[in-house]
Amino acid sequence: MKTRVAIVGVSGTMGRLVSGLVERSDEYELVAGLNSKSDLSEMLAAEIVIDLTLPGVSQSVVDFAVDHGLRVLVGTSGWSQNRIDALSARLAGQNEIGVVIIPNFSIGSVIATGLSVLVARFFDSIEIVEAHRAGKVDSPSGTAVRTAELIGRARAEIGPVSASHTDQRARGQQVSSIPVHSLRLDGMLARQDVIFGGAGETLTISHNTLSAASYERGILLALAATRTAVGVTVGLDQIIDLGLGEASK
Q1: In CATH, what number is assigned to the domain containing residue 232?
Q2: What's the rounded Cα separation, in Å, for the pair 166 and 174?
Q3: Where would one find coiled-coil regions in this protein (predicted)?
Q4: Which of 42, 43, 52, 55 lies deepest, with the highest CB count within 10 Å?
C-alpha cells in the first residue's frame, strides 16, 4: 500500500521537484498539494506532510500536522535550536508522531559538513561563507547554521574559535562563535565554504550545488525515514551512515 503524502508549498521550486518524485514513485501517493491560498485542513487526508514553505510559515504547518497526528518532513530552513528543542519536548513520550527536519537534502553537502566537524578540533580560526540565489529569503542558510552548531559541539571541550573584530557588521553573523557570511546572487544555486586557518596554512572544505537533481536521493531517503520517525530527527546525517563516526552527530 502506498503512503499518502501532502506537500505544503507545492508551487515552489522544491515543491515541484518533490511532487514529481512522489508522483513517479511506487511507494507514495500525492493526495494533496497546498499553496499559500490553501487551508491547512487539506493535508488531513495524508499520512506524511512535507513542509516546503517559508521560515515564517513552517512552524504553523508543523504544529497543525502534529496536532492532527501526522508525521512531518521539514525541508524549510530557519529552524533554530530553540524551536527544535521546544518541538522535541512537545513530542516527548509520543510513540506515533515524528518530525524529520532536513537543512539540506544534498548528500554531498552533508558529507562536507561532517568533514568540517572532523577538522574543527585542529584549527582555532574557522569561518563559513555560504552563497545562494538572490531570492532566498533567509540568511544565514540552514546548512550554514547547522554546520556551525555541529562544529561548536565538536569544540565544546576546546572552546570557541578565534575570531577578531566580530563587533563589526562586515565580520558576519556569529553562530556558535563562528563568523558566517552570506552571499545572495543572481545565477547562484548554492555553495558553502568552511575555511580553516592555522599557523602558515589554510584548509577549505567546499560544496557546490550545481543542479536541484542533487537533492533527489536525499529527499527519498528522508521521506522513507519519516514513515517510521518518532520524536525529532535533525539532519540527513542522522538517517544515513556517512562513515564519519560521531563527527556529524
Answers
A1: 3.40.50.720
A2: 8
A3: none
A4: 43
